[in-house]
Design a protein that fits this description.
alpha+beta; Pnp Oxidase, Chain A; seven-stranded antiparallel sheet; two-stranded antiparallel sheet; binds flavin mononucleotide
Length: 303
């Protein structure tokens, strides 16, 4: 596949911005509540944001200076009062949040503009957003400018002192239900995505269980035109392969016998037929059966 390759300097600032934000996504949104030294509240969304440590809980979000070199209220405020409440943004509040991204004049209260309810924090001065399902009361550890040019990013490194979780997002004491929390992510341009329903899927690949890996797949699987990387990864993700007894037991099952009889009669490309049957198992998440069939074919020398 041909690539288009650039050094950052070959791109205009707006192209660079577009390529980076259109590709590094979806990004979670830090809905940052701050106050100035007189206690006036400010609320603004920032999607250059993530968590970088859970022990202690440390977040970083980034506030650009504007193209005219002026400083956004959030950065100004955390320099005056080094505290922030990071509220997370879910689908029901996303449109209201977007209003708070408008460049209102300093001193304008975005809680009022966006129709949000300020509630007091326990450990810091900035308010929490009642409508947000998760609020982190944080102290700002450090702000760090990436350059002194207009548009430059300023990292705000913040540590959570208190974590508030709306009980409705908890499946039980230890599990957050992704469908109830219903998070949104920022994409490129004006696009967002919603992380609930069919968009959410699980890949159970525990780091401590040492998977066999693609290099241990039989050669005919590695070069398969039927099985994509997605399906081969289901097979490469196992920790051990079925033994010969289980394979014989499997091959003697009536439905498998039916496949084998038909398979043996074929004179065309048998590998394709075999891979299609393996795919049938994988689509039903029957990985063990997919392996048994693949190993049966190898051991009986039919491909
Ligand atoms: C979803 C979303 C994400 C944003 N992310 C960022 C960001 O990461 N960095 C930034 O400087 N501005 C970002 N903005 C723009 C700011 O929110 C906007 O400039 C805002 O007016 C700043 O408000 P303030 O001056 O009250 O801090 C984002 C806007 C939206 C709607």
């Amino acid at each position: 596949m041909p690539y288009r390759t650039f050094t950052p300097e070959q791109l205009t600032p707006s192209q660079r911005h577009h390529y980076l934000l259109g590709t590094v996504n979806p990004r979670p949104i830090c809905f940052a509540s701050t106050v100035d030294k007189d206690g006036r509240p400010n609320l603004a969304p920032y999607s250059f944001f993530n968590i970088f440590s859970s022990t202690p809980p440390v977040f970083i979000f980034s506030v650009n200076t504007r193209r005219d070199g002026s400083i956004k209220d959030t950065l100004h405020n955390v320099k005056e009062v080094p505290e922030v409440v990071i509220n997370l943004v879910n689908y029901p509040m996303a449109r209201q949040m977007a209003i708070c991204g408008v460049e209102y004049d300093t001193g304008i209260n975005e809680f009022e503009k966006g129709g949000f309810t300020p509630i007091p924090s326990e450990k810091v001065k900035p308010f929490r957003v009642k409508e947000s399902p998760v609020q982190f009361e944080c102290k700002v550890l450090e702000t760090r400018a990436m350059s002194d040019k207009p548009g430059a990013a300023n990292l705000i490194i913040a540590e959570a002192l208190l974590i508030h979780l709306d009980e409705s997002i908890l499946a039980d004491e230890n599990t957050i239900d992704p469908h109830s929390i219903d998070m949104v992510g920022r994409m490129g341009n004006f696009n967002y995505c919603r992380a609930s329903g069919e968009s959410v899927f699980a890949i159970r690949q525990p780091p401590a269980d040492i998977a066999i890996g693609f290099d241990n797949l039989p050669e005919h699987l590695k070069t398969s035109k039927t099985l994509s990387g997605h399906y081969l990864a289901m097979m490469a993700g196992v920790t051990k392969l079925p033994g010969s007894d289980t394979i014989s037991g499997f091959a003697n099952q009536p439905d498998v016998q039916k496949f084998i009889t038909n398979f043996n009669k074929q004179s065309n490309d048998k590998t394709v037929l075999l891979h299609e049957e393996i795919l049938n198992y994988l689509e039903k998440s029957e990985i063990e059966n997919a392996w048994k069939l693949a190993l049966w074919a190898e051991q009986s020398g039919v491909i």
